[in-house]
Amino acid sequence: MAKDGEKGGWKEYIWNPRTREFLGRTASSWGLIFLFYVAFYTFLAGLFVLTMYVMLQTLDDHTPTRQDRLTTPGMVIRPKADETFEIVYSIQKTESWDMYAQALDKFLAPYNNTAQVQKNDECTPDQYFLQEDSGDVKNNPKRSCQFNRTLLEECSGINDRYYGYQEGKPCIIIKMNRVIGMFPGKDGQAPFVTCAAKRYKVGKDEWVLLTVRFTLQREDTEKIGELRYFPPNGTFNLMYYPYYGKKAQVNYSQPLVAVKFLNITTNEDVNIECKINSNNIPTGHERDKFAGKVSFKLRINTNN
Fold this sequence. Notes:
Blueprint: H1 2-14, E1 15-16, E2 21-22, H2 27-57, E3 75-78, E4 86-90, H3 94-108, H4 113-119, E5 171-176, E6 192-197, H5 207-224, E7 227-230, E8 256-261, E9 270-277, E10 293-301
């Protein structure tokens, strides 16, 4: 009998025909609860939409409202094997260096003179290409200056489709990361790139390690040999700045600098560091030891 009573109890809890209650509540009670939650979540959704709308009114589709950036932009090299900064190949093995030549071909294709003439302007060198807005009226899309592949001369891949790799005189392409609104230079002095033996930073008490690293740097300095830069002096011309952003300047072509190693020591690892030189860009930043410079290893083997 007790079991029958328990069975009838939970059945009545689900639906009580005498009081017409479902799960302990009448239809009107359930209706009021439903209306309350509909109103409550409608209010929350409206508050969220209003908040998003107000926030979006403060944003610009073309320029970030806030830029938490380093004062020194980063640098990268091409070609780059996977995610490493090592260029290692054997002159006698075509397949070991042909991939680097193909990577440079692909990278430089948008810089072909014909492509640049079609989409970009021929600007006045050695001065910033300013394109100011008229108050709230945006001057978009903004124009960009031509960077023709031929400016890289011996490293353009036009006269030498192997970029010197087959001769043991490889070309490395360097570009500076884009920073919206940056003016890299003052008083008409454009930034330029220099490459040398990799420098090592150690603590003041690490005397043994310092001696070892100083020896490594000196050895790498002797191995690097003569360098040649394209454009001349490894300069990033001022006319490619300021950069206004990907949406505002859709055809922007980053300026490049090519470094050609004319007589680097073969069959040995050579650790190289290239850095940006400018009279208004700090040489480094405590938050990013790679700011303003890029390091890589170059090894050219002459035997199989």
